[in-house]
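WARN retry 2 of 3 for item q-0093 after timeout on previous attempt; input resubmitted unchanged.
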Amino acid sequence: MVDYSFKEDFKYKHENPYHDKLGEFSDFVLRDHEAEAFKGLWNKDVFKREGQLFLEIGTGAGHFMIDYCIDHPEQHFIGLDYRFKRSFHLAKKLSALEFKNFRYLRAKGERIEYMFDENELDGIFYFFPDPWPKTKHNKKRLIQETFLKSAYKTIKPGGIFYIKTDHDDYAEWMDREIKKQSDLFEVILESPDLRSEYPDHLLAKYTTGFEKIFLEQGIQIKAFVLRSKK
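OK item q-0093 returned
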């Protein structure tokens, strides 16, 4: 069964006080369905300039988002997360930054094709998602047929989808799901130990907050880099 949040008529429902608190940062934060009003218009109406557009799903504490935006001021970056309190604390950090080549969405990653037009994204970053380890919860994992088709639709021809995970079982699941959709993406990198095999790769250059903890625990970082076959 397809997750209801993938459906066009899905409606966000919540009574979380952090939803209203995030309204304090409306100059760069979009909540729930607000981002969907800019489908196909991110460069033109939001950033008001031309530039490559990248999306990070599961921004967390924002370590990667902030470092990447500093290193790539010419690009446009959209961070996305669904956790309320985490989003609010990150928004406070983002509000103190002098540069603003980013926007932040409190929304669900399942809905990217309602937030971004066909071929609008140059790439997607997806790092250390919740692995939903219990078998009965596996269906909640984002990397599956419906999402991969949405990612393929929104990413430009030749665009890149970057993935990192600490979780062995989820990495194996990803491998199977990606191969099932082999007509969509070419796997240009697959590693069970990113830091040892590809120490100079873009994915090894940046360390998220969760990743730092995993590395300190001696956990190997699994990685995939997919390129659109359009």
